[in-house]
Task: inverse folding
């Protein structure tokens, strides 16, 4: 078996060995430390760490809020992508550029900005709190922050699919007597479904690990608004390295499974969008 | 690219557009506006004082230092990885591409944790490093390592996608015509990928400046020594110095807006490269 196919281009071994070395030093070896550390601490200690009530509460909050934020991102992101692709309006290029702001804005900045909007004296909290809707320092705040983070993933997944869409399909459906709702549910939605799912998975995966934008608005009340990454930080501050590692292992395994899922999804949707 | 969809009735078009813009305003524009309004909440003088404080200045310096080391390292890596992966056929190519993306899937907090486990007091090299008085964790090297980890895939990922679409014909022609390796690289490859490369570097830079979680775990928050700009925002905020926190945050927000503008420009340029 040959490892590499013949080529007249130079530099393969140099580039390949540098890539492998740098990848190992910066990413693979440090990451393996997490798994090695958790295996040396023993199985019972591992289970004990991830089963303690505040850890379970944090997993529940992180998964629940990420799920909710992912779903909101799917609905709102689809709407934004649709409008950006299908309609013309003044300031469209600016709106399109702004979609990426959550990618570019440091998470700590997003965190304090969102918090200031939703506290009692904030621009929005000022109206919401008298109505009994408390966002800052509640699970709802966590969802708001995670939606901010997740939104661009959905928009950027759906946008190219809508741009490549063949309008003739919709015209054909319409000329065959389909109603607007039928066209949406039978033609458009099936077409964007893989992209929506990819966007959701990306947003969800990112939300699970998100730290900076959440901790300010969450308020970090024990058992109520503590997210999983915060618990890792808390354990580290108490020098409970094996406790922090145990929680991290569960998160890492979850995100690797999600990454795998996203990879499969993307390969699939590429099969559909690329011309044969 | 976009195709106006004249079929939708005006009322539908209007309602959807207004709803979409309202959502953008609520989730994205409002937080950005809040940063700037509150940054100047106590006036221009207070703003200037915060920015010129020695702690802020040293935070800026440390952020720039981490950036100046991690971005070039990841750029060099990105070029090497993209060259090996896109110009050659070898076994395990897909695995390698997937492994490069790992840091994107890891929580920032865990990205910091891994270096604590390797270099921290209880870590693999902790005792040796303490013995030789070479602190990594709660010190500048840790911050640089954590920044490098979280920004690791940006350049590589951008270049792999771009160079994959370009193929190998031009480089092969250069070699056949007698160019040496460096001539081929600087005269053929680099001009072909320059905008895409710059795009990756811009994204990498923005993330390096803004990284919070990973750096927070390894920094120890020592003022004037291991504080980057985002960490400084947190410290000021937790001290109830909101105007100060937002003043520093506004610097980072300006950089974010510049990043967005550059990103749009480079997307346009690199779509020409893709041909």
Result:
């Amino acid at each position: 078996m040959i490892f590499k196919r013949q080529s007249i281009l130079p530099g393969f071994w140099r580039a390949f060995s540098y890539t492998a070395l740098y990848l190992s030093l910066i990413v693979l070896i440090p990451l393996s430390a997490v798994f090695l550390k958790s295996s040396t601490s023993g199985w019972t200690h591992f289970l004990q760490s991830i089963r303690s009530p505040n850890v379970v509460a944090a997993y529940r909050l992180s998964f629940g809020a990420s799920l909710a934020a992912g779903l909101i991102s799917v609905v709102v992101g689809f709407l934004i992508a649709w409008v950006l692709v299908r309609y013309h309006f003044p300031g469209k290029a600016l709106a399109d550029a702004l979609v990426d702001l959550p990618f570019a804005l440091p998470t700590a900045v997003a965190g304090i900005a969102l918090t200031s909007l939703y506290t009692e004296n904030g621009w929005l909290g000022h109206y919401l709190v008298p109505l009994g809707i408390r966002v800052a320092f509640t699970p709802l705040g966590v969802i708001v922050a995670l939606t901010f983070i997740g939104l661009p993933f959905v928009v950027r997944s759906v946008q190219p699919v809508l741009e490549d869409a063949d309008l003739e399909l919709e015209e054909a459906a319409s000329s065959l007597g389909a109603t607007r709702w039928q066209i949406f549910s039978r033609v458009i939605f099936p077409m964007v479904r893989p992209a929506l799912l990819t966007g959701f998975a990306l947003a969800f995966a990112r939300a699970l690990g998100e730290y900076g934008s959440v901790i300010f608005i969450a308020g970090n009340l024990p058992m109520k608004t503590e997210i999983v990454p915060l618990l890792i930080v808390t354990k580290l501050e108490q020098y409970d390295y094996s406790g922090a590692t145990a929680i991290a292992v569960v998160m890492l395994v979850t995100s690797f499974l999600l990454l795998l899922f996203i990879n499969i999804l993307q390969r699939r949707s590429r099969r559909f969008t690329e011309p044969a | 690219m976009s195709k106006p969809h004249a079929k939708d009735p005006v009322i539908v078009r209007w309602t959807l557009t207004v709803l979409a813009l309202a959502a953008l305003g609520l989730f994205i524009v409002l937080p950005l506006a809040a940063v700037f309004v509150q940054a100047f909440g106590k006036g221009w003088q207070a703003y200037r004082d915060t920015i010129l404080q020695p702690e802020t200045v040293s935070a800026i310096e440390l952020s720039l230092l981490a950036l100046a080391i991690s971005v070039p390292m990841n750029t060099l890596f990105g070029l090497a990885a993209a060259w090996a992966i896109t110009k050659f056929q070898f076994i395990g190519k897909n695995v390698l591409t997937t492994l490069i993306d790992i840091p994107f899937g890891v929580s920032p907090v865990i990205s910091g944790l891994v270096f604590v486990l390797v270099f921290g007091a209880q870590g693999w090299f902790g005792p040796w490093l303490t013995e030789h008085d070479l602190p990594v964790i709660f010190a500048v090297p840790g911050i640089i390592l954590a920044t490098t980890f979280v920004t690791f895939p940006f350049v590589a990922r951008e270049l792999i996608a771009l160079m994959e679409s370009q193929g190998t014909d031009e480089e092969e022609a250069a070699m056949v015509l007698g160019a040496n390796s460096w001539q081929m690289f600087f005269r053929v490859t680099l001009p072909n990928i320059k905008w895409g490369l710059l795009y990756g570097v811009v994204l990498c830079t923005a993330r390096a400046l803004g990284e919070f979680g990973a750096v927070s775990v390894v920094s120890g928050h020592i003022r004037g020594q291991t504080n980057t700009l985002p960490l400084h925002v947190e410290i000021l905020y937790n001290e109830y110095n909101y105007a100060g926190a937002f003043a520093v945050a506004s610097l980072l927000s300006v950089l974010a807006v510049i990043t967005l503008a550059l990103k749009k420009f480079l997307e346009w340029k690199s779509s020409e490269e893709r041909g």
The longest helix of chain B spans residues 54-87.
